[in-house]
Amino acid sequence: MDTRFVASLLAIVEEGSFAAAARRVGVTASALSQRITTLETDLGVALLRREGRMVRPTHACRNLLPRLREMLRIEQDLRADVRGQGLVGSCRIGAISTALGDCAAPLLRHLREQAPDVELRLIPGTSPGLVAALEAEDIDMAVVVEPPVNLPKALRFDLLIEEPIGLLRPRHSEIARLPYLVYSREAWGGSLCWSALTDRVEDPQVLVEMDALETIAQMVEGGVGQAVLPGWRGLSRHAPGADFTPWSGARRRIGLLHRQRDADSPLVALVRAALR
Predict the structure, then answer these.
(1) Count: domains in the chain
(2) What is the CATH number of the domain that holds 57?
(3) Taking every annotated instance into account, which residue ranges of this chain make up the domain HTH lysR-type (predicted)?
(4) Looking at CB atoms within 10 Å, which of 142, 147, 220, 264 has the fewest?
(5) Does the residue 8 lie in any domain?
């Protein structure tokens, strides 16, 4: 089985269309179609089905995806062993939005300098969603809020940074008691912020609740309300006209989540160093 054809199938599944996958892989859509036909003949099952303009994996294909991804990972490891460094192939990194804004540029620069043969894909998501994607092997690593529950033994969390949690208020506000714009309590970081708020304020007046830190920060700057948020590095870019006051003892911990089997991977080490 040609692993290039397997990589083409995974690209189609991830992109959702032949055209987008063809641009990513660097071949024509017709060539991709021929590769899928060859794979279906080799495996004896249909792998894709069309739904309007989108292409979806069949049930048989979904069952095969973890082993196909493992096949590509093994091939990449073999090539890396031959080259003696382990810094080659594709790398899919998921990240929460604030980490993506803070880390994307330095990560790209660092990998371009230290591992130019690595093809990087950055995938936004929520912490719980990215943990699930890592377990399903849809991504290779994730930058997430520290999970509030025990992780599966197959996964490992490496702490990268601790962010203070505090109060964000519009500068020179004339309103004595502003309502609160609440970082979603269903989010892991939002739960920490809500606990910090209710420890200090009895029965806070909630105006709106959302899992969109950048939007909340901009609304605070616009004078709509105040918010309890983590002080991520990019906060001042989104709310330059607001004042952030950290609260003692309240922190949000951000780290790199990866599989235990990859703990000694040179690529994981390189990504970890870049993010720190």
Answers:
(1) 2
(2) 1.10.10.10
(3) 1-58
(4) 264
(5) yes
Is residue 85 pLDDT above 80, yes or no?
no
Mean pLDDT, rounded, of the chain: 89
Contact indicator for 171, 257 with CB cutoff of 8 Å: no
CA distances from 263 to 4, 137, 155, 267, 270 (A): 27, 15, 9, 10, 12
What's the rounded mean pLDDT across residues 258-274?
Answer: 89
Please answer whether residues 242 and 221 qualify as being in contact, where contact means their C-beta atoms are separated by less than 8 angstroms.
yes
Could you tell me if residue 145 is inside a domain?
A: no
pLDDT (tens digit per residue) in 203-244: 999 999 999 999 999 999 999 999 999 999 999 999 999 999
Is 233 part of a structural domain of the chain?
yes
CATH number at residue 212: 3.40.190.10
**Structural domain of residue 191, as residue ranges?**
163-252
* C-alpha pair distances (Å), 267 with each of 141, 146, 274: 10, 21, 10
DSSP assignment of 6-36 equals HHHHHHHHHHSSHHHHHHHHTS-HHHHHHHH
Phi, psi torsion values for 258, nearest 5 degrees: -150, 175
> Given 9, 40, 70, which residue is the final one in a domain?
70
pLDDT at position 79, please? 62
Dihedral sign computed on CA atoms, order 223, 225, 228, 230: negative
